[in-house]
Amino acid sequence: MPSTHTHEAMISLRMMAVNPDLLIFVQKSIIIHCVEFCSIM
Q1: Residue numbers of the domain that contains 31
Q2: Distance (Å, rounded) from C-alpha 41 to C-alpha 7?
Q3: DSSP string of 6-37?
Q4: Whether residue 1 has pLDDT greater than 60
């Protein structure tokens, strides 16, 4: 059990460290999808 908890902690720490880049990437992809959708409409 302790090994899985340590693994989850490492994953969450890594996600928190990457989180800002992840948010920027998600926002960019959402904007791109909105632009493509609007251009199709």
Answers
A1: 1-41
A2: 46
A3: HHHHHHHHHHHHHHHHHHHHHHHHHHHHHHHH
A4: no
Question: Count of domains in the chain?
Answer: 1
Residues 6, 14: Cα–Cα separation, whole Å: 12
3-class DSSP state for residue 1?
Answer: coil
d(CA 20, CA 32): 18
Question: Taking 80 as the threshold, does the pLDDT of residue 35 lie above it?
Answer: yes
